[in-house]
Design a protein that fits this description.
Blueprint: E1 2-7, H1 11-25, E2 29-33, H2 44-48, E3 52-57, E4 65-70, E5 75-79, E6 92-97, E7 100-106, H3 116-137, E8 142-147, H4 171-182, E9 186-187, H5 188-192, E10 201-202, E11 214-215, E12 218-222, H6 224-227, E13 230-235, E14 251-255
Amino acid sequence: MKIATFNINGIKARLPRLLEWLEETRPSVACLQEIKTQDEGFPADAFEKIGYHAIWHGQKSFNGVAILADGVKPVETQRGLPGDEDDDQARYLEADIAGVRVASIYLPNGNPQPGPKFDYKLSWMERLRRHAKSLWDAEIPTALVGDYNVIPEDKDVWSPKAMASDALMQPASRDAYGRMLADGWVDAIDTLNPRGGIWTFWDYQAGAWQRDHGFRIDHLLLSPELADRMVGAGVDKEYRGREKSSDHTPVWVELRDRN
């Protein structure tokens, strides 16, 4: 079972690239972020034509998440992150697929910091941790994947100095991410690439892609049941270099079948 995450940065603008990636790599599950469309504008038919069934949680012009599954219909288990009834941003969607609970996550960016956007980011991360604990306590094999908007360590960015003031690598952001790891969630990419130097995002500005000035903010966190089944994880870097690409690239983990 191959589970992937891809911040598509506008599903309508990137649909040809997205379909291309799906057909060329064929993940079992693809979690999307920043679809940037209302629910009625989601192009479900395009995915159905190539064998993928979808659920989605949209929002006009901003945010939005989706889950695609190859050949099976995702069974939705949670829409929106629990813990704040006033939060109407489309950033969390969760479903059961082939015995695995999968969540597509678009964590708040938090810039500018300090300020209300950064406060919202930290509050959202604490809510995520609480909800993740409920899945843990229920012993559900779970993958929490998506754009976390957190650079976990200095090894995960081309230049720590260049990003020092950004919300993505503030101590509070890193601490919140680290607390989830301390709870027992396994960072798939970091586990197999402990020396770092793996990027998932390159800005459109200042020739970041051409100069390889990137950083790692798209993560796959696995419960122990799934971490024990991990046989590989990686980044589909080449897709960032294609015409009209997202500024993120797909990230994936492969799990062996249950015994």
